[in-house]
Specification:
3% of the residues lie in helices and 41% in strands. The chain is mainly β and 384 residues long. Strands 3, 4, 5, 9, 10, 11, 12, 13, 14 and 15 form a 10-stranded mixed beta sheet that branches. An 8-stranded mixed beta sheet has the order 2-1-22-19-24-18-17-16, with no helix packed on it. The longest helix has 10 residues, at 297-306.
Length: 384
């Protein structure tokens, strides 16, 4: 564990000899890299996969698998990046890590990473990777810099980077989780967006529902990342039996490599991703005590049916939670706000903001036993 990075608590699920979900690892994610992006800027690997669909079973800690950035061409990686805040006495004139802007160039042969420079101790280079990225701020804040915009991002804000040129600025320090999936560039290194489906507009949300911010960036022109959407997530589903529950769907990848497109929310709404694909969501959980005495099999069935996945429910009167579910997926989960309990067949794990979980085909539920709402991001990948 690198001493310069704040440790990231990571819970990884598995199964016992009877096939019941349990915890395989719980503790600081071990594979940290203190200065992988320059002094004060590093990352912690949470999970790596070299094949798609992702393996659900196994005793190997795939957070320790190697890869070359931008990631495995048959898979991807999930990691948390961290940048220290800019000190008040920072002097640009003495910054030895400054690199002037230059024409785009391949950072290293065959790696799928392009660079335009412009970096310093507290800003990344303007760069582009051959990936579809789900990026979400889990602590602090950072600025996303494009050719046509500079966007401050806060906890819970999500960017869908569709192979776009972009830069990061770290004025206040931040931790940000990235699910990076290898993408299909049909025009070689240009990696331009394909088709003409424009992003959906922001929805009309009921009073009291907190929006989930979704930023979408693409390259319409070679060498220039462009902002095409910055609104509340357009597709939000509710559960009448749980007032305050909201599941915002932000993006869907319907295969691997991922496609470079403007929008994907026209694809069918289900909890399970398409074959070889993924789904990005942000979910609000109200306190259990506000609904637990009013929910039974009819309400649970209605919810999972409305989510397009009636078979995902594993409800039974003896289950540890009425909303237990199981899908053939590997889910990367970040606790964004509040505290919440991960309920498994044989164990319960209390989690709080800034912690992450990797659920490997787990029968599970999220139980909010606090008095305040909790918010969790879930990136679900097709598993095998």
């Amino acid at each position: 564990m690198s001493k310069g990075l704040n440790p990231i608590r990571r819970v990884v699920t598995g199964h016992d000899a009877q096939g019941r979900s349990n915890v395989t690892w719980d503790g600081p994610a071990p594979n940290s890299h203190e200065a992988s992006m320059g002094s004060g800027k590093g990352h912690t690997d949470i999970w790596v996969w070299h094949e798609t669909p992702l393996p659900i079973h196994g005793q190997n800690d795939d957070g320790n698998l190697g890869y070359t950035f931008c990631g495995p061409p048959e898979g991807g990686h999930f990691r948390v990046v961290q940048g220290r805040p800019k000190p008040k006495d920072y002097d640009l004139s003495t910054d030895r890590e400054i690199v002037a802007r230059h024409p785009p160039k391949l950072r290293n042969p065959g790696l799928g990473v392009w660079d335009q420079g412009g970096n310093s101790q507290f800003e990344s280079a303007m760069h582009k990777t051959q990936t579809l990225d789900y990026g979400i701020v889990i602590q602090g804040g950072r600025d996303l810099v494009l050719e046509n915009a500079r966007l401050p991002m806060e906890v819970g804000d999500t960017v869908i980077q569709v192979g776009a040129w972009h830069q990061w600025s770290y004025p206040n320090g931040a931790q940000m989780a990235f699910d990076m999936i290898f993408a299909e560039f049909v025009d070689g290194p240009k990696g331009l967006v394909q088709g003409n489906d424009k992003p959906l507009p922001a929805p009309h949300l009921p009073s009291g529902v907190k929006p989930a911010r979704r930023i979408v960036t693409v390259d319409e022109k070679e060498g220039e990342g462009k902002l095409v959407a910055d609104t509340a997530a357009p597709d939000v589903r509710f559960d009448p039996a749980r007032p305050g529950y909201a599941s915002a769907r932000l993006w869907v990848a319907d295969g691997h490599p991922a496609k470079m497109v403007y929008e994907t929310l026209h694809l069918p709404h289900t909890l399970e991703p398409p074959k070889n694909g993924s789904v990005c969501r942000v979910i609000d959980f109200p306190p259990d005590q506000t609904w637990k005495d009013h929910v039974g099999p009819a309400q649970v069935k209605a919810f999972f049916t409305s989510m397009g996945s009636p078979s995902a429910s594993t409800y039974s009167p003896s289950a540890p939670h009425p909303y237990m579910q199981k899908t053939r997926t590997v889910d990367f989960c970040c606790i964004l706000e509040g505290e919440i309990t991960l309920v498994l067949d044989t164990q319960e794990v209390h989690m709080k903001a800034g912690e992450v979980a990797v659920l490997r085909g787990a029968n599970h539920a999220w139980s909010n036993r606090s008095l305040q709402p909790a918010r969790v991001s879930v990136f679900s990948h097709d598993g095998k």
